[in-house]
């Protein structure tokens, strides 16, 4: 089968920015990741072997001078030493285990140094998603000309509504081509309005269309820290480590790993001033914004000066509704994923994730500590039942 991932930077920016922060702060930390299909899909026999073939092909990828040059120009907040690391980086398929159980459910696990396994997640999810449509034959239904037209209409509506928006759809895209087509169409849109297509999380496509790569961090950064040091202060430690690496750049913090209540206790005035804003990725968008603005006001900070990025399962209609509610209360922007890159009539997007589930501080530790994510939506929780139970107790979530 043809190779699905053909470019080293066909990946989300936040994987690279987190990788640099991990090397800077946790260079000897080991982790485990686990794949989950939230729809509990039954995959056809042999599907795991096809995924394994694609993961093996990742070993052929090498970052190019063109990709490094682009990232240095557009991502000057990334430390210069990190590009030398990427030049020597090679994917290692031995870090990945892929199989199917007796019923056909797909199982994938990664284990290894955090700075080596961290660059696998998005690429493997994109592989699984595109392979599914190829094997099922649904890819024959993809009308890319229609996708281009509809993408342009989406961009026009968002621009006219005043929305600042970006593509964040690499992980669960229907195909590389679908993301390419959508990004190209939106980048060419010249609608009248105060909104703007800001860029894409996909570094390669940002380079291809001379756009701004978008992204900061994912929940795994806080999850790993919680596994090492406990969840009560995970956000505090994460904010301290992140600001130490990036010195004020990349200042949008993803706060919902352990629900708003605990984050709010960690979000002191110095952090609130240091970070440009927050990202809403779970819960009711309007309720979350109300909590965010109230917190800033309590700290004597004008929330209208702070950025709030909304990325919780958005489509155009939801983004415009939030824009109307948030205007004047904060600086809203929107990261939209599946609705851009996996939107074909009659085709159901996949609901798949890969989450960090265990961590040990260094290789000298003889055991891992389990971790989990407890966001505002229970459907987005990750981790085994016992770990979730322990974390809920530690975080006083049932009080």
List unreliable stretches of 5+ residues. none
Distance between the termini: 53 Å
The overall pLDDT, averaged over residues, is 97
Helical residue percent band = 40-55%
Strand arrangement in the largest pleated sheet: 6-5-4-10-9-8-7
Strand content: 15-25%
Q: Which structural class should the secondary elements be placed in?
A: alpha/beta
Task: Work out the number of β strands.
Answer: 12
Q: Give me the strand/helix succession.
A: HEHHHEEHHHEHEHEHHEHHEHEHEHEEH
Q: Which shape, going by the Cα principal axes?
A: globular
Report the total helices. 17
**Biggest sheet details:** 7 strands, parallel
Radius of gyration: 20 Å
Model description:
- The chain has 399 residues and is an alpha/beta fold.
- It has 17 helices and twelve strands.
- The protein has a seven-stranded parallel beta sheet with strand order 6-5-4-10-9-8-7. A five-stranded antiparallel beta sheet has the order 2-3-1-11-12.
- Strand 8 (277-280), helix 14 (285-298) and strand 9 (307-310) form a beta-alpha-beta unit.
- Helix 1 (13-25) packs across helix 11 (234-246).
- It is globular.
- The model has no long low-confidence stretch (mean pLDDT 97).
